[in-house]
Amino acid sequence: MPADNPGRSRSSPLSAYRTTLLRIAPIVTILIAWELAALSGLWPRQVLVPLEQVGATLLALASSGELERHVSASLYRLTCGFLTGSTIGVATGVAMALSRNVHRLLWPSFTCVRQVPVIAFIPLLILFFDVEDSFKIVIVAIASFFPSALATHDAVRDIPASHREVARLYRLPLASFLRRVILPATVPQVLTGLRLGLTRGWLSLVAAELLAADSGLGQMMEMGRQLFQIDVVLCGVIVTGLIGFLLDGSVVRLERRLSRWRTA
Amino acid sequence: MTPRLKPAALALLFPALVLGWWEWESRQSAGHAYAFAPLEQIGRSFVDMLSDGTLLFQAGASLQRALTALLIGGSIGIAIGVATGLSRLLDRTATPLITTLRQVPILGWLPLVALWFGNGDGAKLLLVSLSAFYPTVLNTQKGMQAIETRYAEVGRLYGFTRWQALRLIAWPSALPLIFTGISQALAFSWIATIGVELLFSATAGLGTEMMAAQVAARTDVVLVCVACVGVMGFALNQLFGLLRARLLRWQPPIRN
Amino acid sequence: MSDPRILRDPALRPTSTGTGAVRISGLSKHYAIGGKAMTVLDGIDLAIRPGEFVSIVGPSGCGKSTLLRLIVGLDTDYDGEIRLDDARVAGTGLERGLVFQDHRLFPWMTVAKNVEVALLNQKLPRERRDRLIAEHLALVGLADFGDAYPYQLSGGMAQRAAIARALVNEPKVLALDEPLGALDALTRVKVQAELQRIWMEAGTTMIMVTHDVDEALFLGDRVVVMSSRPGRIARIVDVDLPHPRDRASPLLHRLKDEILAELTREPREDDGTLVSFPPRIRN
Fold it and tell me: Domain segments of chain C: what residues?
């Protein structure tokens, strides 16, 4: 959701109504233009599908269970990959930040490999894992590993020395030091890293599915392209965008909840 | 007690272990050597690709695509960012549209773009430009909106015209964020370039080369390309960092 | 940097151009906060002679900064009248300058460019413009720092650069809004002396808001003491001492005690907002 600048908007009901109208106006205009262009017959129906047909296809895909199959395949891969990648990432980040020797051992290699765009690993991973599920899970894991490791490393390293000193001053036991100092001080930054990891994971997964898969939203779109079914492709675009939006939005909400202490 | 190990030795230890393991795997059986190309072979492929000009040609093609798209997408992004940053009406109308479209992963547009525009260079350029467009437009807009009243008042005090205020206050104060946008756009367009080359059958480019090598099961060639993609991405980022530091030399140097 | 050590009595000073007189009459200012009208300034009458240095002290919230913003025209919504040399003030103008508490130099410009900003809308030949900039940088002791960026300056240097920017188009009146408030005590004393010298050389009418009674007395020909809620002039103290002044003068100390007594006279329910004047003793 675009965050409206709270300082600039007045909140009378009328202006709120007008704001919403302004917001959706360009989207509605484009949709109407689309529909008119589709109905005008200037382009073949296959190229410019009328909106009602897209809707009908979406309904058909949903009711036949096909959409559910693709979505759940994609989400399963995303979940497995993200959980693996981000867990390893957070652990690696903490280790690199706390131990000087681990940092020396891993940091240079980490920085080198981080430079490679994740999707460049796709051909390599296909050679290693074939085109099965594991290849897609691994690509998501790699994609979410780097941002979460980096953010965790930075977050832990940036904890002010004064926090540690205060903890020592009050002789805080390690467990409560971790819980009361390290955790709250790092959570917001780590969450930002996880959020980036999730976004990157989703992007890489769609790319991987487009390239090689037997199911998943990417594969659905690719099939639609090969069979020249623009309506199916459009359904894929819409659902992919929606899922990306919901994923990102939920992490943002979590971020806000957990970092409320910062502004309080 | 841990002995005092030299940082350089430790830094090299990890890659050395990985390489050793790799080489060991490659010698297990012919089947293993299929995926784990022996190190020597990777080295040889690198030298071959370098000497027959393949690497240079493919890297050049990718670089050209990425930079052209950065120029197109970035300049449109900055222009729209300035416009939406200055006009509240434009902000209210255009920004929701941009944020809505942005939810779709760049490569998710690929099948649609392929159907509408074919899979020529134009379609690829369109997608890569789009990937450069998002970060520039959003950062430019944020920068233009963050003009501090503190500075705007100085402008009023000395009777700045609207144009002077834009040129001397709004634009330079937005510049750091605009540069952040461009550097993100640079990274994104490099990634998107490799992506479209992998997914679209392209005529040239590192992605194309990698895809062909994958089909031919040439792990060595794929690895050389992966390394090349990484090194080039890193180099682009560093070069841009230098340019940024030069152009924004009025900023206090960042610690570290 | 030459300190001219000219003995200048405000009454005898040859007012170089004979202009820069500010007359404020019946001035009131209201803010609407949460739908409720709040009076910030109430019935301010003040006549400032050309070339005079007037200090304004008062508790936080007495509207002294607002008064300066009205004089320079950053805020034009008020009742009453502000006149500069008989012309009514409406909006900002190059004949009235302002030095903010934070220096507000544009970080993206060198010091010289920052000073040039003030001359942007004066049609001046290039060389005259450059000379003016160089002269004013020299006036504030920053002749060698024209090519520096603001982040490279110390707090005191940045504030002096801001003063150079404010003076370069030779305003008739210069308002200073706690210009030295952000400086440490030692730098502050130094810049006060410099400000006194600059004022004596430039001959500009200056109106300075400050929290520091010592500072107000050291620099001001008159000290306006304000009370808060609503902001009113409680008292005007004449400082009958020639410039440059000696901080150890017994008269300054006596006046300081008087002003502090005035400022702390009526205990209010919101004592917390009363500025505590640091009881530091300077010599």
Answer: 48-77+174-275, 105-170
- CA A39 remoteness from chain centre: 36
Using CB atoms, list chains with 3+ pairs below 8 Å to chain C.
B
Angstrom distance (rounded) from CA A247 to CA A198: 8
Name residue A197's amino acid: G
pLDDT in tens, A129-181: 876 788 899 999 999 999 999 999 988 888 877 777 777 777 777 777 777 77
Whether chain B has a CB inside 8 Å of the CB on A17: the answer is no
Q: What is the pLDDT of residues A75-127, one digit of tens each?
A: 999 999 999 999 999 999 988 888 888 888 888 888 888 888 888 898 888 88
- Write down the CATH number for the domain with range A52-263: 1.10.3720.10
β pairing state of C205-209 and C53-57: parallel
Q: Are A208 and A135 in contact (CB under 8 A)?
A: yes
Residue C102, min C-alpha distance to chain B (Å) = 9
Contact B100 A30 (CB under 8 A): no
Burial class of residue A60 in the structure, from the number of CB atoms within 10 Å of its CB (0-12 exposed, 13-18 middle, 19+ buried): middle
Closest by Cα among B115, B135, B198, B99 to A207: B198
For the domain bounded by C48-77+174-275, which CATH number is listed? 3.40.50.300
User: CA nearest C189: which of C89, C58, C282?
Assistant: C282
Q: Positive or negative CA dihedral for B93, B96, B102, B104?
A: negative
Q: What is the pLDDT along chain B (256 residues), one digit of tens a residue?
A: 455 557 778 888 888 898 888 888 888 877 766 778 888 888 998 999 989 988 999 999 999 999 999 999 999 999 999 999 888 888 888 888 888 888 888 888 888 888 888 878 888 999 999 999 999 999 999 998 887 788 999 999 998 998 999 999 999 999 999 999 999 999 999 999 999 998 887 678 899 999 888 888 888 899 999 999 999 988 998 999 899 988 888 888 764 4
Architecture of the domain defined by B46-247: Orthogonal Bundle (1.10)
Q: Which residues of B touch A242 (CB under 8 A)?
A: 103
Q: Kindly determine whether residue C109 and residue B151, on different chains, have CB atoms separated by under 8 Å.
A: no
Q: In chain A, whose CA is at the least distance from the CA of B213?
A: A123
d(CA C147, CA A188): 41
Long-range contacts made by residues C271-278, C-beta under 8 angstroms, separation at least 24?
Answer: C273/C59, C273/C60, C273/C61, C273/C228, C274/C59, C274/C60, C275/C59, C275/C60, C275/C211, C277/C211, C277/C212, C277/C213, C278/C212
Judged by phi (left if over 0) then psi (alpha if -120 to 50, else beta), residue A3 lies in beta
A216: contact with B, CB 8 A cutoff? no
Q: Which of A19, A225, A228 sits opposite B92 (nearest CB)?
A: A19
Q: From B236, which residue of chain A is nearest by alpha-carbon distance? A: A115
Q: Tell me whether residues C94 and B173 touch, CB distance under 8 A.
A: no
Q: Chains A vs C: touching, with 3+ CB pairs under 8 Å?
A: no
CB proximity under 8 Å: A 96-155 to B:
101, 104-109, 112-113, 115-124, 126-128
Q: Does C129 touch chain B (CB under 8 A)?
A: no
Count of Cβ atoms closer than 10 Å to residue A164 Cβ: 14
Q: Does B115 reach chain A within 8 Å, measured CB to CB?
A: yes
Chain B contacts in chain C segment 57-116 (CB below 8 A): 72, 74, 92-94, 97-98, 100, 102, 104, 106-110
Q: Which residues contact C185 (CB under 8 A, 6 or more apart)?
A: C280
Interface test with B, best of C66, C99, C108 (most B CBs within 10 A): C108
The full set of domain ranges for chain A reads 52-263
